[in-house]
Specification:
Two copies of one chain form a homodimer. Chain A is an alpha+beta fold. Chain A contains twelve helices and 18 strands. Chain A has two domains: 7-208 and 326-409, 3-Layer(aba) Sandwich (Aminopeptidase), CATH 3.40.630.10; 210-323, Alpha-Beta Plaits (2-Layer Sandwich), CATH 3.30.70.360. The first copy, chain A, is elongated and about 90 Å long. The first copy, chain A, starts with 6 loop residues before the first helix and ends in a 7-residue tail after the last strand.
Chain lengths: 416, 416
């Protein structure tokens, strides 16, 4: 069953939502549970109501809208988030929500009935930019995070999640476990450069990479850069540089999809002619296979210890984050690939390097994601951009898979 | 001619001067031309006057005190500085001044007449901690720096050198070129760990290392740590780490006395899961041979360009400082070594890794330096320490060389 989607309607909604919290140079700022988020929620919920969908909000502010199916079955849920980082773009999260809404409206326009209900959802605080951890709403909904614990979390502005929810009237009545999909589909921008670089239209997302964040703190001894022979130094900065180089070497030796990033690096006392006494750096390692990720960690930690020891420095490390990889449902992933093929869209299987709400659903129901290209691979940036035809391709594929999965009820008298 | 020095008198003066600008945890802060510097100048000048020396101050505040010689000859000058860095110790600079004073007082006590006058001097703003450049007073005195230009320099507190001089009444009447020694001797703590590590009592300083300070700024592209494959990154931080490693490799490959230090390192945006868009680091290279120092610079600059190019980053560099090496007078250096031998002090020839007032005199008259051990190699630090016996060894050697160089007038009737 093929339906037509209305690309102009989709673009108009993306632009309208983008005007809420718009930043001077482009992009927008709608931090979770802020006044801008409240306005965004009102706009999107209004569109849900325009279509006479059945709108629900749960106790942590997750909101979903259901179009009834032919039978009393669990809904096929399409969703993502509408909160942004402080300098966010117009597409991250928004595409999955407004794309889902476009699918439902197109299905309504086409007067099609589905076996399973179709639903579209947005989840509270996916970004984690105001309140840590991220993926909070979907995590609470799917039992990965504890409701009371999350309500007590305090944001960067000193306000708790509970107070922020009440402050904008976003706390609903539905219990935590109210949303129980038959399957979960999330359309999202890639946020990376792979699809664009290859000229591929669709990313069929096979899972989410495991993430390991480690902070290393190295303690050496400050010394005069001119008067201290190399052999007598305990240079914390040299150890830090060596760890950064080793992180790169691990990514090179392990090969794709292993990635390694040193995002933070600081020296103290940070003076031109003083051998650094302290150095702090972070290493972000990601891989789709947890065994490989563990091997990368082991090699990194061992090398870091050896480098510090050789330099006469002490080193401590602490884990800032550790998530195991998530594998999406093979059947649903296969359906996305087949759908892309039927629609004549070039596609490749790929892991997601970033976390998404979909991974919270994966343990409880078949879940999977569709990626569309990000211009220059840029995201979490006001210059984030995906071309209209790529947005439309993603929504058409979302519709194709959603209808196949939800099951189309054939009009009476029609043969299979 | 051997004279006895009074170690207790020397220590008492070091302690007394150390109480001016004393810091709570030890050490002191007497920034150049500050109120504390003024008090320090008054104390030391008072000691000069107690000995009925002929005290002079020039237009940039350099102060020297002369004990007349047998003949109207240029003085043998012993000197250093009494200003400190913000968290300085009790010995850096002070030892050279109060050691010189101790030599003169011991010579007076021994009723010895010298052919050349003996003089002790302290020079304005050697540290450069309040006003850049450092070695300002000696540089102006010896024609390396322009008086008017230096008077116009503005310090970290917004006050000019000229106003600071007048503010504490330190501007004297002697012209810039008034101090013209027959030779210049500077006793100083090593400020490095070599003598202590070797168990050597005296460093016979052969010259001052050339210094090259370069700041590199690397511009790449910020990107998501999870979604950006390694091959598509333009990681400014990785280039910076590579340059730091190369600086180390240069020191290793060139061998002693080549040293290389990366003292400063900063990434932007400095976020765990973002590939750095910008990185800034400094490299401090030093060598006693300018040709070798130039070769080190060339290798560093070429490698930095290549690393940046390989990563798709742009790189710019700017010189923060560049001083050619200074060689001290071989005869005077030889006299110091011979004097140490006569006194039974273990000694080694070594370059100075730090800059000192002596290097400003080197182009105009025989100049050289004597080093004594620094505990743990620490200096520019409140824990800076040199043991009393090491201080005394240095002053005894200073007296030995000063008397030999100035020439002792033999009492009438005594045979040579």
């Amino acid at each position: 069953m093929r339906i037509e989607i209305n690309t102009e309607r989709l673009l108009a909604r993306i632009e309208a939502l983008g005007r809420i919290g718009a930043l001077p140079g482009g992009g927008c700022k709608r931090l979770a549970l802020s006044a801008e988020d409240a306005a965004g929620r009102a706009l999107v919920t209004g569109w849900f109501c325009d279509l006479e969908l059945d709108v629900h909000t749960d106790v942590i502010g997750n909101c979903w809208a259901i179009r009834s199916g032919h039978k009393d079955l669990p809904p096929l849920v399409m969703g993502s988030h509408i909160d942004t980082v402080a300098t966010g773009g117009l597409y991250d999260g928004v595409l999955g929500v407004l794309g889902g809404l476009e699918v439902i409206e197109s299905v309504i326009d086409a007067v099609i009935e589905t076996e399973h209900p179709l639903a579209v959802a947005f989840f509270t605080n996916e970004e984690g930019a105001r309140f840590a951890p991220d993926m909070m709403g979907s995590g609470v909904s799917q039992g990965a995070l504890d409701l009371e614990e999350m309500l007590a979390k305090v944001g960067i502005d000193g306000v708790s999640v509970a107070d922020a929810l009440d402050g904008i009237g976003a706390r609903g009545r539905e219990p935590v476990s109210a949303l129980a999909p038959c399957a979960y589909l999330e359309l999202h921008i890639e946020q990376g450069p792979v699809l664009e670089a290859e000229g591929t239209e669709i990313g069929v997302v096979t899972g989410v990479q495991g993430i390991s964040w480690t902070e290393f703190a190295i303690a050496g001894r400050s010394a005069h850069a001119g008067t201290t022979p190399m052999a007598l130094r305990q240079d914390a900065g040299a150890v830090a540089a060596g760890i950064a180089i080793e992180a790169r070497a691990i990514a090179r030796d392990f090969g794709s999809p292993q990635v390694a990033t040193v995002g933070r690096m600081r020296f103290a006392p940070d003076i031109v002619n003083v051998v650094p006494e302290e150095a702090v750096l972070t290493v972000d390692l990601r891989h789709t296979d947890d065994a490989v990720l563990q091997a990368a960690e082991t090699r990194l930690f061992d090398t870091a210890e050896a480098l510090a020891s050789d330099e006469g420095c002490t080193i401590t490390r602490r884990s800032l984050a550790r998530f195991e990889p998530v594998s999406f449902d093979p059947d649903l992933v296969g359906q996305i690939a087949e759908g892309a093929k039927r629609l004549g869209l070039s596609h490749r299987r790929m892991p997601s390097g970033a976390g998404h709400d979909a991974q919270m659903f994966a343990p409880n129901c078949p879940a999977a994601m569709i990626f569309v290209p990000s211009k220059d691979g840029i995201s979490h940036n006001i210059h984030e951009y995906t071309a209209p035809h790529d947005l439309a391709n993603g929504v058409r594929l979302l519709a194709e898979v959603a209808l196949a999965r939800a099951g189309v009820v054939k009009p009476e008298g029609q043969t299979a």
